[in-house]
Amino acid sequence: MEIRCPRYLNKPIQVLWWEADEFVVFMIFFTLALVYGYLMWIMMFAAPVGYAKLKSKFPRGVISHLVWTVGFLEIKGYPIYHERRFYE
Prior knowledge:
The chain is mostly helical. The protein is built from three helices and two strands; from the N terminus they run E-E-H-H-H. The protein has a two-stranded antiparallel ribbon with strand order 1-2. A hairpin with a 2-residue loop joins strand 1 and strand 2 (about 20). Helix 1 runs antiparallel to helix 2.
């Protein structure tokens, strides 16, 4: 069995020319375009570009920390955001 190791371990996963999270934004607007049409076809390409520009202004990992702050994600080894006491 052959297991491939990526050349650069810290390089993000890419789908075409987008990173994985930008591709998710593209697919969300693609689904909305199929359902609603009209303006969503334009937003299907504009939203990932705007998201990429917004994401480039912040340090790496800020999106996952924002999602953790809201409470949608648990980061392994860290307490939940609203926990007042944490014992190691």
